[in-house]
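Open question from group meeting: does this chain pack into something compact, or does most of it stay loose? Before anyone orders reagents, we agreed to write out a predicted structure and look at it together. Recording both the input and the output here so the notebook holds the full record.
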Amino acid sequence: MESCPFCRVAEGKAQARVVFDGDEVLAFHDIAPRAPVHVLVIPRRHIVSLAHTSQGDRDLLGTLLAAAAEAARQTGIADSGYRVVANSGAEGGQTVAHLHLHVLGGRPMGWPPG
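Structure tokens returned:
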């Protein structure tokens, strides 16, 4: 999708500070971080949101979570702890219509988050 900013990053048409690059997923630093470490993990294939996935996406969803763990390891927050968030839809806080996970760490996370 030409207008999707995350598709542009996945296609190499927009710059990003890449953390993890795989065949099906890509992880990169968020341009507006909400924590000292804030990485986004996206599928290379355009999927609007978690609500738009199906049983056929189970393997990809597992790959996304594994990539989130790898991003935490590569950014040095795996041992101290981190949060993985998937916002879905406008009321869920999703601002880019491309499925993505936020990997947040580098400071204590409060609860509740929203």
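Observations to bring back to the group:
The radius of gyration is 13 Å.
The beta strands are 18-21, 25-29, 37-43, 82-85, 101-105.
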